[in-house]
Amino acid sequence: MGKENNTRGKGRTLLPVACFLLPCLLSACLSPIALHRAVLAYDETVQQVSSEQLLLNIVRARFYQPLHFTKVASVAATFDFRVTAGVVPPEGDARGLAGPLFNATVAENPTVTIVPIDGEEFTTRLLTPLDEMRFLKLLEIGTDLGMALRMVGASMRLEIDGRSRVLYNDPARRPQYEEFRRRVLHLASMYEANHLHIDKVMFEEKWIGRMQDLRPEDVLQALEKGYAWGRAAGDRYRLSRMRVLISNYHPDDLSAGERSKLSEHLREWPPNDVMVDIRPGYPGGDYPFQGEITLRSFNSILEFLARSAVEPVEFPVEKDPRSGAVRHNPALTLDIVESDRPLPEAAVAVRYEGRYYGIKRPVGQHPADLWNAKAFTMLFHVYQMMVQPLNAPVPGIAIAK
Length: 401
Fold this sequence. Notes:
This protein is α+β, with helices and mostly antiparallel strands. It folds into two domains: about 1-115, no CATH class; about 130-385, no CATH class. The chain has nine helices and twelve strands. The strands form three sheets. Strands 3, 4, 5, 6, 7, 8 and 9 form a seven-stranded mixed sheet that branches. It has a three-stranded antiparallel sheet with strand order 10-12-11. Helix 4 runs antiparallel to helix 5. The model is unreliable at about 1-15, about 15-20 and about 390-400 (pLDDT under 50). This is Lipoprotein. It comes from Nitrospira moscoviensis.
């Protein structure tokens, strides 16, 4: 009997200890699990809303409706973890043994800030043309050159026999559109074959001096405006203005006179123009041309994609015989599926005026589906890139815009 009573005494001693430790363990387990799920859930929701909003505005543009964007400025969630413990009194033949009782709750209080994009921000992000430096960044993340030029290129102005000729990226102007597409296909084939140079080149020297004469904000503002710092003689540095050049040669291969002439061309064009110079005697030089590609605003990109699905529809254009191989050349820059029924298989889908519109989910390695998915992703990247730059302090040296 004494031995049995001793065992019961140990059970009564361990029970309060368990009632104290288990709530702590439950709280420690619940906190990271709830936080992990919440962070991923908010991230997925914001990404889905942004994608659907992007597609919805393409559909709005198709029906000549005003575009409207909102952004999730911040998401703040407060979590309240509560764990309670108790003891259930013995009942019946429990022989005096009490049972533990635990209860865990998690309360979430999210605060989401949604801000409409209007006023100056609307003008900057949607109506201002894409500049050449952002176009270069778009290519640096691995974007297909042909896809990028078809989407963001408004026109191509060429110099032919001393005369200027404009090729519009507009299916309504069929001969010009076909020629624009053939030139873009030629650039895409050279890009895939690693025969194309796309880089910033110096065309104007703005300042030479010692770095200690400058403040950090001077250097920051110069970089934001597309300038580059380089070493000059001794302890002096050179500030140069840069422009983007697409060519089939390296700029260092040119003579001093040719570089000077090239600099004159670059100085004359606005920042939303990208110079193209394909010369004979270099790879791809069998189909030479020189001029500049004018970039669209984001609003114009959405309108182009919206119109390409209705009259006049984009149509297939074959490459020039002098161009190399091109992996993908679909008729439509972005193919949007339209249906009177929901599109459960679509990667992104929206409902507008009783009809459903979606971007087809890529299945396997089908070229058309992959192109379409990548084109929509690139459109999302362009939208994120069109952000108003930070206002840097006024520099101590004069840097012209």
